[in-house]
Each structure stands twice: as structure tokens, then as C-alpha cells.
Structure of Serine hydroxymethyltransferase:
Amino acid sequence: MQDKMIENLMRAERARQKNAINLIASENYVSDDVLAALGSEFTNKYAEGYPGKRYYGGNDVVDKLESLCQDRARKLFGLNESEWRVNVQPLSGSPANLAVYFALVPPEGKIMGMELSHGGHLTHGHKVSATGKLWKQVSYGVDKKTEQLDYDHLAKIAKKEKPNIIVAGFTAYPRTIDFEKFRKIADNARAYLMVDMSHIAGLVAGGVHPSPFSYADVVTTTTHKTLRGPRSAMVFIRKDKRSLDDLIDKAIFPGLQGGPHMNTIAAVAVALKEAKTMAFKKYARQTTANARVLAKELATYGWRIVSGGTDNHLLLVDVWQGGAGVGGAEASERLEKAGIIVNKNTIPFDTRSPADPSGIRLGTAAETTRGAKQKDMKHIARVIENTLRFKH
Ligand code: DSN
């Protein structure tokens, strides 16, 4: 590269990624092919519109690319084109979710989503997000005792509040989500059901988490977490007489976005093909097996694991009351010094502040990509124990 300053930063980041143990539950390491597609000439092309309906010339190649990406997305999750539209243009998860509400929820309407501090996402109606300013959030949380979803309680909230849309899917919920129960709750409240499967998309693709597609009206997902693609997002929309597919397509473009990032769409297409392989299925199985071992080992050392364990790729550790009296911020800093990257995280019913909560969130997707197995998780648990239990 001519630009030595950027080249040096690239080299430094490459080294940082290589030398640290990455337990950020929402990160992963993409393949060289995904990186090549991201760095391709597709970045030079303006392609406002959709395949066959563009506003600029010169789109014959990118039309093929976007259609191929859509086909691969549907194939990966076993969907028919006659039943599902997929939009691969959202620039990331937040704009994808915003577009769905923009299309389906009237001004001042209600979004029923998980509270942020219980594992929800800002874009599920939190007051600091546009989704909480433009619409009203009806929030739900986990049960205080089990720290898991209480579907009967959710049904009562939905019946009383009559939200326009119910969002299932979380950023820090370590348990399997029962999409069928969410569907019944949505039907009884006459609400749309949107599943945000950003965290678990790779697990759904790999067959280690139930699929939401039999139940949801709309499924949103980022592509860079367990799915192991570039930073981007997709929206899957069930086709029916309500024409939600047209409404959401229009909300994405021209409603909220301009030209799609075609280089990113190329990289998503590469990742979707990779995720269709047997090797990826094995990866998904190993990711969840690793999370279970990490949770079990830490529990054996005496750490309290929120909800008692994990069914997916992530776990929440209560380092404050359920550990050594270390706050989440200090725990994260101490682990970083020991070469382990995690994020501080609130736990349900947290008594501390979001800036220094009671928990840390650990995920196994990135390290499993690098080949980590159960024995490596035991080693990581030992380092966490040694780093956090005692003051050094
Ligand atoms: N920042 C993502 C996560 O870490 O879960 C969600 O947007």
C-alpha cells in the first residue's frame, strides 16, 4: 500500500486479532474469500434500486450478484422464492430493524421487545434509539428466578398492551428461543412477529438452534456474528396478501438507504455459500459444545452463570455477586490485560449501572473459527478464574 499509516494500522489490528483470545459473542473471523470480495471493484458501483429496476446504468453484473446473494440466502435457510422475499441491502442490523418498523408500525405504534438490561437490543424499542423515540416500547424481561423467558407472562403483556409488532431475538440471552410460543402470543395480540436472529443465524444455518422461519412474518439478521460473514444484514419477509415484502423493500430503498454496498453484498454471498457446507455445520456444533464446556468449567470454579448455563454460543457470568466481587468493567479490563477480550454486560435485574454492570458476556463463535475445542475452553476458564478471582 502507498498509505503507510493505514497499512501499519492494518498490520497492528491483524496482530491484535491473532494474539488475543476473542470471546466477544458478536464477533467472528471471516475467510480470505470474504475479505477478497469486500476489497473488490464492486465497491465502485452505484446500484440504487433492485435487480432489474436500477436508477443508474452499468448494473448488469451487480444485478446478477444481488440475485445470486438472495438465492443463496434462501437456500441456506431452506426457503422457497414463492414464499419468501429476501432483501440483502441493509447496511447493518440497526437499519434493517428500523426498516421493518418503518414499514409495519404506524407512528406512535407499539414495539414489544426485550428490555436492554435483560438481553434485548437498542433497536428493539429502547428509549435512546430512534426505535424508542418514534414508537413506544412495550418491554418484557426474563423471569427473576429462572432468568429465562416466561412465555405465559409475555402472553399476558401482549394481550394487555396490544403491540403492533413483537420482536423475538436477543443479544445476551443464552437459551433456546421457542418461536412457536412467540407465534401464538403474536396471533393472540394480532401483532406481527419479527425474529431478530442476528446472534444465532449461524446456529440456525448449522442446525443447532430451531429455525424461526415456520413462525415469523419477518426475520432480520446481521451477517457477521455466528454466520461469519462481513458486517451487513438481511431481511427475510414472508410473502402473503398483506404485501409486507413490497412495504419493507420500499422502506429500505428509497425509504431509508441510498446505494447498496455491492462489495459487501458480494462478501455476504461468499459467506452464505460457506455456511451451506458440512464444515460449517460442524463448526456450529463445535461452537455450542465449546460454550457449554466454558459455562460448566466456570461454574465448577464457583462462578454464577446467568440462567444456569447456555444452549447457544454465549454465556453471561455474574462476576459481582456470583463471583469474586469484581464489577463487569474491571473484569473486562483485567481479562484484556491477560489477553482475553470480552465485554462487560448487564445481567437481568442488575443492581449496578450499565457502565459498570455485574456481568461479562462470553461467546465462542470467534475462537471456534480458529479451531478451539473443549480442551481450549477448559484452559480459557482456568485463565479467567486465575485472572478474576485474585488481585494481582
Ligand atoms: N453489538 C452487538 C452485540 O454485541 O451483540 C449487537 O448489536
